[in-house]
Amino acid sequence: MNKLDLMVALSKDSGLSVTKATEVVNVFFGEMTDALVRGDRVEIRGLGSFKVKRYRGYTGRNPKTGKKIKVKPKKLPFFKCGKELKERVDIHKSKPKGGSR
Length: 101
Hints:
two-stranded antiparallel sheet; alpha+beta; three-stranded antiparallel sheet; 101 residues; 3 helices; HU Protein, Chain A
């Protein structure tokens, strides 16, 4: 599912126009993004939580040349799945592809 699919589903399920559903979805994701940029944690019960993780800089290695490089510190968004979502996905897991191991 992508953002457009979500907007269409919201429109159908709620009776909102596609324009209004688009506005709701954009506000929702905009507020989540703004909260993460501020360093706040976002928790959606039944789904999971989002936070920003900070990573220290380190000396890495270019895999092509083998040359040492400095990797700058960075911040990245991190999602932790909630218990309810984890359980729902596990119940509905599909059979493995390509035979048994």
